Amino acid sequence: MLLFLEQLLNGLQLGVMLFLMSAGLTLVFGIMRVINLAHGSLYMVGAYVAATVFLHSGSFILGLLAAITAAGLVGMLVELLVLRRLYGRDHLDQVLATFGLILFFNELTVIIWGRQPLFMDVPDLLSGTIEVIPGAPYPSYRLAIILAGILVAAFLYLLFNHTRLGMQIRAGASNREMIAALGVNIKLLNTLVFGLGALLAGLAGAMAGPILAVESGMGESILILTFVVIVIGGIGSIRGALIAALMVGMVETLGGFMLPALLRLFLPAATADGAGASLASMSVYMLMAVVLVLRPHGLFPVHD
Amino acid sequence: MLTLQGVEAFYGSSQVLFGVDLQLEAGSVTTLLGRNGMGKTSVVRAIMGILPVHAGVIRFAGREIQLMPSYSIARLGIGMVPEGRQIFPNLTLRENLLAAAANYSGSSEPYDLDHVLTIFPKLGDRLSHFGNQLSGGEQQMLAVARALMINPRVLILDEATEGLAPLIRAEIWRGLNILKQKGQTILVIDKNLDVLLRIADHHHIIENGRVVWSGSSARLAADDALQERYLGV
Ligand SMILES: Nc1ncnc2c1ncn2[C@@H]1O[C@H](COP(=O)(O)OP(=O)(O)OP(=O)(O)O)[C@@H](O)[C@H]1O
Ligand SMILES: [Mg+2]
Fold this sequence. Notes:
Number of helices of chain A: 11
Number of strands of chain B: 10
Helix content of chain A: over 70%
CATH architecture of chain A: Orthogonal Bundle
Largest sheet of chain A: 2 strands, antiparallel
CATH architecture of chain B: 3-Layer(aba) Sandwich
Bound molecules: adenosine-5'-triphosphate, magnesium ion
Oligomer: heterodimer
Structural class of chain B: alpha/beta
Number of helices of chain B: 9
Low-confidence stretches of chain B: none
Mean pLDDT of chain A: 91
Strand content of chain A: under 5%
CATH class of chain B: Alpha Beta
């Protein structure tokens, strides 16, 4: 039971990471109608910059700030130089161009940081454990990630629902031409939205630094799950991204833990473990399939 | 105040405006009349920087605006009430009004939420409804109110009474009369000639992408042949 609760927290933490990634991707997809495969590269940029600054300065906070700044700026630059030319073009063009960006960023990190992965320590302050559940100490760093996710969700909620900037972004998502005709510089707004999404991806990358190896290509594995999340949540919906990210985080984590155990009830142990593991790796896709059968446009379809 | 000279525009390779000339005096109510498909909406879109202008000049507030982006044109002081209303469906009525609100004309008594609600009081009970939950009439009043919230020097209305019940139409016309009394410069496109002859000072008739006649209400009212030929009334 304790193990189960611990896995639940792990699922929550993965869900938070996925939420940070998918918030930006779903916005870009929903508002600018552009498929950006290079979103994972911004996560990687965040991780590398955080690891490097942390290593040299010894300050995790500084690393985090540098990471989100760098990812935000790189994101806006990518929007200005590349994505802006892709709005309104065929999805295939967008996929090809942004796939090119992935290769570019992966090579670039190899040139700058080499092929050896960087390892980043958990900051001292968060290196301990906390007993959220009595009897099961849980790493405080992972709890901090969960907290960061809650803060970001609250921030996005306020930004989109209670500021004029948020109203303009939502208005632009439904009718660009009209919001421009009311005096809003929608191109600039798009760049800012893109920068915000990139910044969140950078934040996710920076926070993943101490948990994963920081290496070239690290953005791709999370990118796939991120796409699953935004499809389940409903493209363009931040609320959908939040719910779906938590669902996918849970299913991914608990699936690997529970399915083998479940199968052992009726199968020989070895077969159960093998089948359970394969089923577990398929489970998020099965979740996506079920959601799409029931709600073809995702959980929170954005009007159109 | 707003002048078009020889404005030409295309949709793809097919030309839609063939040299439009049009003038709007400050403080006047001016119309753009013409049968369906003659290019009225295209003129509005060209003024607003939505439809690219291939030739000709559009002058407003002492500037040439035909190459400017939409948002700059709006900021110079042109407010558009577009054909089809184009309310933001995912924003509440209040948000539709506030999203882009600004005082671009530098008016000393700028429109704000309370002020536009005195012109269209019916909107007051619907402030927290989403755009797609409003009736056609409410959407139309909102579209006018939304344009006023940027405090435009010129207000352009494209078919603001189309498809509305007579009572709601009257409500819109009443609103426009208030604006006219306040000295708001207005360019209006509408099919209700009899109302326009009362409310407007000056008229332009467009046919196949060209302005073929301009003149006062008195002259247009007196000329049945003209009305029949270009407006089919
Ligand atoms: N997006 C478009 N693409 C191609 N052609 C268009 C487009 N919009 C309008 N047209 C054509 O341009 C011409 C002028 O259209 P416009 O909408 O300006 O006319 P209108 O006078 O506003 O008509 P209505 O009274 O029906 O609103 C029409 O022949 C129309 O078919
Ligand atoms: Mg029209």
